[in-house]
Write a structure and sequence with these properties.
By secondary structure, the protein is an alpha/beta fold. Helices cover 34% and strands 16% of the residues. Bound molecules: zinc ion (ZN).
């Protein structure tokens, strides 16, 4: 083997290792929030999917997880998890406690329960209304939700827009209609990954 082909082979092995570690080592990070309600015991049966970005604060850093965490702190809200564009998962609130992610909300009929935070786990994906979501985010989200399903009897996975939309406003539960995760979130793809 010539020295140049040896270098090429070594390069290929290195690339392979890089891809392998990116594919298998989902990054899990801790970013504890102070904005939650402690729950002695609660029954979790719902997962709520959201998006969040820093686009209205600093356009050039819209996908920076640190900016997104800062925005959550600033507005004194939270989610249990935040997933960045590279698929890293940040844990903000323990699943046993109530995160402040949905606000005024009502489950779709025939469920119709209000105050969805009480019985749900909230997951924020870093995205804008038009950015779409990365493959790494779908993979990390599916892994996370499969884990949640193994720990809780989950019977509904909904978007924030399904529980805090026009109906919630008409019922006087909130003032604004929530657009997230919006039409760019691929529900069939996601559901196919967790069922
Ligand atoms: Zn939301």
């Amino acid at each position: 083997m010539s020295s140049s082909s040896l270098v090429r082979a070594a390069g290929a092995v290195l690339l392979l290792l890089l891809f392998a570690s990116a594919a298998f080592a989902a990054r899990e990070l801790s970013a504890p929030s102070r904005h939650y309600t402690k729950a002695a015991s609660r029954r979790v049966d719902t997962v709520v999917i959201h998006y969040l970005s820093g686009i209205n604060v600093d356009r050039s850093r819209w996908s920076d997880p640190n900016l997104c965490l800062e925005i959550l702190r600033r507005y004194r809200v939270s989610a249990h998890y935040l997933i960045d564009r590279a698929g890293a998962v940040y844990t903000l609130v323990d699943e046993r406690n109530i995160a402040w992610h949905a606000g005024g909300s009502i489950m779709p009929a025939p469920d119709n329960r209000r105050g969805v935070n009480r019985f749900s786990i909230g997951i924020e994906l870093i995205a804008t209304h038009t950015s779409g979501f990365t493959d790494a985010q779908y993979t990390a989200l599916a892994t996370l939700v499969r884990g949640i399903k193994s720990r809780h009897p989950i019977r509904a996975i909904v978007g924030h827009d399904q529980i805090s939309g026009r109906r919630a406003v008409q019922l006087g539960l909130r003032k604004d209609v929530k657009p997230d995760p919006g039409p760019r979130f691929d529900w069939p793809r996601f559901r196919g990954m967790v069922e």
